[in-house]
Design a protein that fits this description.
Layout lengths: L1 H22 L4 H18 L4 H9 L5 H33 L3 H9 L2 H17 L3 H24 L4 H23 L13 H21 L1 H6 L5 H14 L1 H21 L5 H26 L1 H8 L8 H26 L3 H22 L4 H27 L3 H28 L5 H23 L1 H11 L6
Amino acid sequence: MLWRSGSQVIAQIVQWGATFLVIRILTPADYGLFAMTQVVLMLAAMLNGMGLANALVRAPELRREDVARVFGMLIAANLALAAIQVAAAPLVAAYYREPRVAEILRVQALLYLANPLIALAQGQLARTLEFARQARVNILAALAGAGTALTGALLGWGVWALVAAPIALFGARAIGLTIAAGSVPRPSFAFRGAGAFARYGGLVAAGQFFAFVWSQADVAIAGRIVDARTLGLYATALFLVQIVVSKVVPPLNEVAFAAYARLQGTPGAVGRAFLTLVRAVMVVAMPFYMGLASAAEPVVLTALGPHWHDAAPIVALLALSMPAYTLYVLLGPVCDALGRPGIATANGATAAVIAPLAVIVSVQWGIMALAASWIATFALLLAIGARRALPVIGVSAGELVRAAAPAVSASLAMAAVVLLVDRALPPLAAPTRIGLLVATGGAVYAGWLLVFARTSIAALLSLVRPRPAA
């Protein structure tokens, strides 16, 4: 987890650093052209066969011919996507009334050549929990992508600097991960006998598609009803509150998926591992969410600036919905690792119905009603998802509640104290105010855990404490 999360943090810093430099060189028109192609790439990313790599990770036994068939399926799927993208490029360009979009999409089809190598190597390395090698490659690939973007911008490539950067990044990852994995099997296009892998990969892809539908419903629907400024406030508030669940939890889930797959033959081990991860994640996530909810105004003023002041109440409401959302996203990987990807797909399909309906109804009363609706929506989705997933995991609802309860109670105590202290403070500059509130909240949270929830601290430490090899 430290290798996977740490490498993501470093890679993100490298990429953001380059992005801010490139933004100063390129024009908004360059970024507008690039953005027109991203919806196509995001949709295609759900069908590129990455779920097949997960099938390799969770398979109890793996033969060389299985790996060869999966490699062949990855190549076939990505070549088909590349051909479709090249053929559809003129249609997309006509939709945007921008001829250059077609040329960009044709060049971006090169990305699909790297996908099979990346997916196969990632699956092989994750199966043996070799995340240190992956981490080193990811950092080097991030440097390659960032360097290409910055060099291209300085040389006057315009939008092509943005197009070349991900091609360099994907190419570097494909080469680096293949070397790290040690070998590339000869692909087999005789797919007879690979039905189980295909079904598994298809269910994972369907789940990703449903997740795309429901996660984009709020901006897609609200964008036609509210004005641009209000939508901007909402989207930025959503980005702020989802930092933990979108940037911290995914790499943890990726590592946990491989670990669950290794443990699936030991009775009760997967359930215990899942509860350990729940305790550890909630210890980190809950104070972040409740801190945002109780001190949204000084956080927004300090982090975003005074012109974002109106986003503060939206942040406070959205933060209250994040604990249920965080637990919800922890359910999918464990079911996938146990060979039941249909559960995550069913949960995604349910969310793809409930979330858009909630958005359509709530946004009629304004953006604050939309933000508040997520509290009930995520609570409902968690209840439905847990009912499907917990029997498969081998964990009861009571055990899940008890695993999350220490962090929840400590965070609620922290939030109550922070609210009282904030009201008692005299008028102060936002950075000073948030500094005092963070110090107060941190002391209360740590003290509460030490007195009432030492088990949760032990669970967090158990994930990072080195263990001797078996």
